Structures are given as C-alpha cells and as structure tokens.
User: What shape does this take?
Amino acid sequence: MTEPPETGPGKRIALLALHLESNRFAPPVGRKDFAEKVLLSGDDIMTDAAKEHSRMGGTMTGFIDAMNRSGPWTSVPIVVADIGAAGPIAHDFYMELYDEMKRGLEAAMPLDGVYFGQHGAAVTTEIPDPDGAMFAMARAIVGPDIPVISTLDLHGNVSDEMVAATDMLIAYRTNPHVDQYERGAEAAGAMRELLTGLRPQTAFIRLPLVAPQVCQRTAVGPYGAAIDRGQTFIDDEIMNVSILGGFTYGDTPYNGMAFLVTTRGNLQRARAICRKLAEGIWAQHDYFVPHLTPLEDCVARAVACGADPALPSVIIADVADNPGGGGRGNTTWLLEALVAAGAKGAILGVMNDPPLAAEAHALGVGKNFEALFNRNEADAHSNEYRQQATVLNLSDGKFIGADPGTFANLQLDLGPTAVLQVGSVTVVVASIREQCIDPNFFESFGVNVAEARSVTVKSRGHFRAGFLPYFPPERVIECDAPGLSSPTLSNFDWTGFPRPVFPLDPDTQWTPPDW
Assistant: This one.
C-alpha cells in the first residue's frame, strides 16, 4: 500500500477506550477497580503514552506513536479505562464513562476522526453490548462522514451494532497477544487513509461456534491457520482481515467466532473472502473441544520433576482460575495438592489475596505464621486454606513486564506483594488481581524461574509468550480444576448464548449466508 497523502495539522482525532473483557460469572467491577489499573482522562492520556513504560495497553500507544510518525495531527484525548479481564462493569459506573465520553466528544466538535482502543467483550450489569452502545453514541455525535475506527482484542464478541456504527474494526492477530502495538499502528494508518475520504466496505459473519479459550491459540491449530490465511489476501483492495475467537464467559447474544473483511470499496470481494474463511473453520469445528489434564496428573508430574533433576521442568497453567478471563486468581486446588504431595522446587503465582499480603507485610521477612488464604472470599470456588508459612520476601508490587510477553515493557502494579514458603511450594501473593503472564511476576520478587522444577501460573495462555524461553510447548500442562474461567463449558449455566451453538450443542449446523 502506498503512503497516504499528508493530512495537515488541523485533523483532530478523539481518543477513547473501555478495555474490558467481562466474565458474567465473576463479581462486578467499578471505579475503584479501574483506578487500580488504568483510569485516565484528558492530557493524562498523552502524558502516559509518552512514558518509556506506559500503563495503557499497547493499542492506544501504538495508535498515538504511529499518528505522530505519519504526519501532523491534533490529539483530543478524552478517557481511557482499562482493567483487562474482570466481571461485568457496574452499570452506573459504565454510564459515568459513557457520559464522560459523550460530553468530551460533543465539546471537541468539530472532529475529523474518532479512535477507540476497546477490548470488545465488555458487558455491564444491565446490558450485553456496551461497546456497541459507545460506538453508536460516537457515530451519532460526529455524523456519518467522520471516520470511527476501533481496535479489538481477538477475544471480542462482535455485535451487529459494533460493525454498523464504525468504519473499521481491527482485531489482534496473536494469542498470546504480542501485537497490540502493531494493531494500534495499523489503525492509525487506516485513519490516515479514511481522512482522505475513503469509505471502506466490510463483510461480517458470526459462526455458531463458541470456542473455549484454550482452543484459540494462534501458534497451532485451525484458528491460527485461518488468521494467517486471511493475511494472504491483504493487497491494494483488501485493507484488513480480522477473525475473533470471542470470549466465552461473556455469555452474550453476540458470542461466536466472528469474521470481518474490510476492503477499499469492493463489498463483493469482501463477502467472498469472509465466507471462504468461515467455511474453512466450520469444516474443522470439531477441533474446538478442549482436552485438559486432570489435576492429580498435573501434581504427579510436578512431584516427579522435583524428585528427578534429570527430568525437564514443567509449567502448569491453572486455566480455570485465570484473572485474564475474569477468574478470582485465588483458588487453592493446585496449591493444596502440591503442598500435600510435597512437590519439591515448586513455585506458584500469582495468588490474589490482599488480607494475606497485608498480614505478611505486618509480620516482616523471616516470620513464621499460619497463613489463611481466602478469609474474605465469597466465591464458591475460592475455599479457605490454612497452612504454616514463612515470609521470604516483601515488595510494593511494582515492576516492568518482561519481553517477550503480552505486558512487555509496561508498568505493572500488583500492590503490596509477599513471597511465602508454604510447605514445599514458594507462593507469590499479591493485592491487585492480575494474570501471571511472564517470568517477572516471579523474578521481580526474588523467585528464580530457571531453578524451579515446576511453575504453576494463574493464566490461561498469555503466559506462553513470556515463559517460552524456559518452557517450550511440549512442557506446558493445562490443568482441569474448578474455577470461573474453566474451559469445560458444561460447568456453567449459560443463559445468553444463541442456541444451538457448538460445542455445547454437538449437532449444531451452519449454513453460509447467501448474500
């Protein structure tokens, strides 16, 4: 594609984001929860983007940097709220954000463009499609001729309103997500084109396929192959091909693998490619049934590695308690079993337990005490667990994400953090819930990953990029344990999905659209 022409210094682009992946089964979140992660308004957005280690997700910084590199523009930063994955957003706080965005857009008019750095899988405690509502609000304010573009996580649940209210939706291509910055930059390139008057045409298909999160890796399997195939169509006519696996636990009417093909005007070709890609996935839809390792087998493997230094070490993913999927990050099923089995050289992180971390800080390094996990936790999966422990290390919880990794070079904050020795297991206990995504979640607190015989992470899959230097895919074990993000879909009471849907309904049929 040729470089877009100069657009001049007067082009005013609004910047907004609600980056939330909502697990309907998890507790709701509000202002306090977002403030612990990222909640920025106005000039604070640009100040954060200019830092060496930004707190914002990579799409927003990628968009801003690429706009800066590609020519003059005027940023109009309004609000960025980013908590990653959690429960539904409390509807009253959502409306506060919605109103702040609305007032900001109205006050900024006339605008030349609007960029959203969304996730695409939010729900509120009252409505299933807050992303679509925000896009529609922006469209109503700026009118039909002003470009509205959003990046999306490939776990976004794409509604018809999201497509109708925007000119272009651009999804990540990698899972683990290591291309957010690049997708933000791609959105900036598209914005430059649209500022010259281009009006894209987009084809959209949603399959009746709710792919469990562990089946959405892009390094292997048909999902990643379809994304790679989609990129081979990019040319002077095809602007973008995005395939979104979706986020199962949103439990919305818009769940289902989504295909978006955007062209520079050729809707017929967009539809042909979109249909071809969707048919290719549907022909292999039986792949999207998860196969996990029983908990007792995971523990046996950890015990064997601890007993025999000649065996290669392993990493165990507690996929059912993934904070990156709305899990509480505090279930003790694996911890209890590893301690009971006396697994040597075992490390586990990150346990989300603010009261326990505070108690360890009050006691000090070297103190022995009876650790009580989950003393204030109401979720049925997060049982109390008592065990003697020793405080090994204490920290304020601030560190930089490791590269490679989804959080590479980002400023992270787990709040007051403690390293405890619980029987044979070294446990990192934090005060702010976060997915254990890379080795610095251990190394920053003095826990040596290279020397561990087994590493248990509260993560579904994003750990794979950061931990790859230590653990190739054949040494990764996905554990079947209870939790709010279990890939075993029969564990949940689904009420929002359009039915039938695969794999919940094995005999689900799909007929391609006859456009």
Observations:
- The CA atoms of residues 61 and 373 lie 37 Å apart.
